[in-house]
Amino acid sequence: MTELTSEFTQSLFDNYQKNAKFSAVENAATKNGLLNALENRASHAANLPVFSVDLTNDPVSNQKQSGRCWMFAALNTFRHKILTEFKLENFELSQAYTFFWDKYEKSNWFLEQIIGTSDLEIGDRKLKFLLDVPQQDGGQWDMVVALFQKYGVVPKDIYPESISSSASRELDQYLNKILRQDAQILRDLIQNGVDVAAKKAELLQEIFNYLAITLGLPPQKFDFEYRDKDDQFHKFEDITPQAFYEKFVDIKLDDYVSVINAPTADKPYNKSYTVEFLGNVIGARDVRHLNVEMDRFKKLAIAQMQAGETVWFGCDVGQVSNRQDGLLTMDAYDFSAMDLDFTQDKASRLDYSESLMTHAMVLTGVDLDAAGNSLKWKVENSWGEKVGKKGYFTASDAWMDEYTYQIVVRKEFLTAEELAAYEAEPEVLLPWDPMGALA
Questions:
Q1: Which of 82, 99, 137, 266 could disulfide-link to 67, CB 3.0 to 4.6 Å?
Q2: Is 381 part of the annotated catalytic residue set?
Q3: Does the structure show a pLDDT above 90 at 89?
Q4: pTM of this prediction?
Q5: Long-range contacts of 205-209 (CB under 8 A, 24+ apart)
Q6: Cα–Cα distances in Å, from 255 out to 26, 214, 383?
Q7: 90: confidence class by pLDDT, cuts 50, 70, 90
Q8: Catalytic residue selected from 69, 80, 176, 291
């Protein structure tokens, strides 16, 4: 092992002070912050928010201090359809309602995984993976499908936000505390040869009570009335969340598939993948991805938007992004001023834990050249209207290539070969694989 000697460190001082450029950048960065000092103005002009395919300018939603982007993105795709078909204004579906049932189902999922791994020793990496984060706010497309299919949806006015849905840190902290304790209780009983079914039911009642107190008891039936843009009055009485979904959303979720771009050597293209321990609803379909090359990935997204439908997608939103101005571009910041050059490619960033999917949003537009190739993309975020252009972001095509990992498209856009690959028995990835990341 090599020690850092004082002579070596002095040479670093000397080399830094020889470069006058560093002093100028230091002054700018210490005064204004690193990224503000390195912001590239040319990136704004090259990514103006004008698109040849532009599907919506509806007001954006706001997930606030919670990790519910995957739910918001899915519910936003539904909202666009509802606003158009039913002539509504300023309408949102309840993200808090879906959040409640996700917490409930994830708790049951966790307890089932604990029972299923009861033969593992404390310290085993897979058991540690489960116990590190028994549940969290994030999720995947197939997980939100499972919730919609089982529990339906409700209007936001019927089940509004609470403190704990809008700022979920405290809720998660104590729910995970409960679940880790429950894990110990179940493992101890199993090791003593006790059937844990009755105890698990008792623990789930405690969890349900906790969720109902912190988030509010969700409705089983409700009345819904509204006036449309033509001033026509409509009323639906004693409707269930499942019936509301069928009436107002009516999207056949089994017609949609998750498509990923993961160019790592361990994931050949045109194969399907799932991830161990990834899910929320016991008995629902597994999380499943079809891996395709990036050019094909983008063509599928474009095809769906050209057919008039927005696209749920997952990306690493924090990478070279200008949040305030709503720019996702590879040249947002000029690190050459610091003599830094980031050379890892997409596969290497995945392999070396530099990048993974962190956020889900909605593609609502794309700018195409004369040949139909994408130039830049319009993105509906769920961070409110105070960032970006009233909540909308612009992603350059190069940024999409490097930091977008997942889209959800209708099966009809896949070739027969792609559909067969998706439906084939998936390869099971380890729980900590980056394609198991939750948005």
A1: 137
A2: yes
A3: no
A4: 0.96
A5: 206/178, 207/104, 207/107, 207/175, 207/178, 207/179, 207/182, 208/104
A6: 53, 35, 29
A7: confident
A8: 69
